[in-house]
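Consider a concrete sample entry:
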Amino acid sequence: MYTIQTNASGTRCMEISEENLQTIEKYALFQHLIDSNGIVDESVLEKLKLNIRSLITSEEGNNKELLDLCIDVIYHNNMKAFGLHQLILLYIRWEKEKNQDGQRETSDEQEKETETYQEILDINHEKVYEDLHLSTAAEHTRAYIKVQDGCNQFCSYCIIPFARGRVRSRSRDSVLDEVKTLSANGYKEVVLTGIHLSSYGIDCDDNLLSLILAIHEVEGIERIRLGSLEPRIITEEFAQTIAKLPKMCPHFHLSLQSGCNATLKRMNRRYTAEEYYEKCQLLRKYFDNPALTTDVIVGFPGETEEEFAESKAFVDKVDFYETHIFKYSRREGTKAAAMKDQVPDQIKAARSAELLELNRKKQAVYEERTTQEVLIEEKIVRDGEELQIGHTKEYVKIGVKNPNNLINQLVNVEIENQLQILH
């Protein structure tokens, strides 16, 4: 039995077939390096030779020593479908490149081996979505369904396109099968997610709008919620069409990152503040007071006081329900990490505090609502009192006092005071 780590957070055990066991035992003391792109680092293998101590590249881009010596192999998330035996045989082939006299194989043989490495390991050219089905989830009312992986955007601060590869979409049939299974198991709400959800279908002659329409037809599902969207997907047709769907949640998370055009350009975001604002207005044209939420980065390299003030004013103008504020974090290997004029941490903290205060004010105003439909999800105890909590379609978290069990039910709740709203 061998333990393999398929990503930075989890392990899986797989049994090796008897026919491969003897060969694998010969290499069982090795721990091998594959970087976050899924590429074999031959320079490290050559340098360390037989007593390889595994190193991994973390999401932050820093080399870390693998402390768990029980793990034999680490490989990229999208390589799970290849199977452990194929991965180890890859290393066996690598070792066999050396002849007994220490010489390498011929150039033709090397070229063939290199093609094998690329075929198996290069995530940048991976086009297959690894299909994993969900029948139950940790939450008993809402299920998150990943429909897409990878990203083609290459924002200057982001490592994801290098770590997760290019856009790969899950087939519509596969998504619908999972939604139907979840519905049969009692789930009432599905949330469509992805690394870059707006790109769904660009690789398989499909699109997100068509997928939403298909899911809307599944019986038993009463709510459809979308994960983070790029603003460019919000067109007149998109907004008008989904506004007609009773199951559609009027809660839209549109990634902003900055309200200053100069900063957006350095970030390699592919829209202007003016274009972004137009998309928000389109949603408000077709939905009655939708919940618009966003992400904003403060302290991006080169962000001056004037640029930050412009970004803050824009956030105020859009009037978001909720703004998630992030202090810029340097990621080695990205263009932004090498940019001049890195902003000091104390300035980032001050700017973050300003936006957090603005966010608190905006939230309070939006939450001044009356009767809301709430999907009850669980029971909690707060200040000695039992509450049943859930979310509105706009994703406002509500606490309800009721002696009856309302779990997984849609109920109309009258908001009498701010204490019913939880954060």
About this structure: The longest strand covers residues 371-382. The CA atoms of residues 20 and 85 lie 7 Å apart. DSSP finds twelve helices and 17 strands in the chain. Residues 345-366 form the longest helix (22 residues).
